[in-house]
Inverse folding.
């Protein structure tokens, strides 16, 4: 099983993003025996850490990516063995091996405000939301071919992004904090729809689930709130 989530927190918080890696991939190319215990990938905007979830070392964090100022979103591809992250300072998307070696720049140029990442682990595609250019883009992890999946209107602000791939196609979901809604599209660029109007201040992240064999039902939405529960951020 492969799963990931991203947590964006306030400016005073230390941890900015987190990805959950369950090291027991169900894809046919991966051994059914877990390679190692599950662990978390965590970033503090400067570094990426590997943090075991179980055992005596569950409180220990192993630094795997160091000194890359501006890390925001992180994602992973278990079968290919890659970690991906956005560097908002350099406006690029980088890639490394799971152990932090072989760091390369995967996407550079024509990026405005990349916000979140999502991996299609069946078709080997990486997707990202760009709140500056108001669009969702894709890059093929084998050919490096880049493509705009959908160009949104000027009032949009795509932030949180998730993908649920099937053998036929991938389904992309994202939160739009400009229009305060949740949208969906196929990775072919078709069937674009608003599937939920979020009555909250600023939806920023989401997590589709699988229920009764159906992908994306329900979809959990995360949004910013004040601790005093007032409506304004």
């Amino acid at each position: 099983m492969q799963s990931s989530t991203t947590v964006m927190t306030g400016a005073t918080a230390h941890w900015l993003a987190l990805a959950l890696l369950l090291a027991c991939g169900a894809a046919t190319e991966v051994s059914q025996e877990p390679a190692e215990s599950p662990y978390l990938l965590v970033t503090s905007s400067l570094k990426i850490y590997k943090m075991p979830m179980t055992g005596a070392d569950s409180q220990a964090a192993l630094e795997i990516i160091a000194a890359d100022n501006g890390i925001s979103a992180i994602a992973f591809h278990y079968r290919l063995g890659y970690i991906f992250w956005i560097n908002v300072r350099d406006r690029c998307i980088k890639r490394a091996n799971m152990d932090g070696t072989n760091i390369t720049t995967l996407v550079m140029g024509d990026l405005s405000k990349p916000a979140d990442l999502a991996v299609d682990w069946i078709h080997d595609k990486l997707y990202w939301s760009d709140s500056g250019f108001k669009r969702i883009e894709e890059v093929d992890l084998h050919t490096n071919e880049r493509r705009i999946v959908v160009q949104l209107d000027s009032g949009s602000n795509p932030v949180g992004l998730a993908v649920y791939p099937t053998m036929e196609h991938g389904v992309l979901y994202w939160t739009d904090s400009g229009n305060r809604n949740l949208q969906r599209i196929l990775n072919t660029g078709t069937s674009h729809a608003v599937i939920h109007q979020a009555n909250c201040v600023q939806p920023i992240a989401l997590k589709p689930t699988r229920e009764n064999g159906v992908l994306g039902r329900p979809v959990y939405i995360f949004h910013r709130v004040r601790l005093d529960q007032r409506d304004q951020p």
Remarks:
- Residues 1-34, 212-233 have pLDDT under 50 and may be disordered.
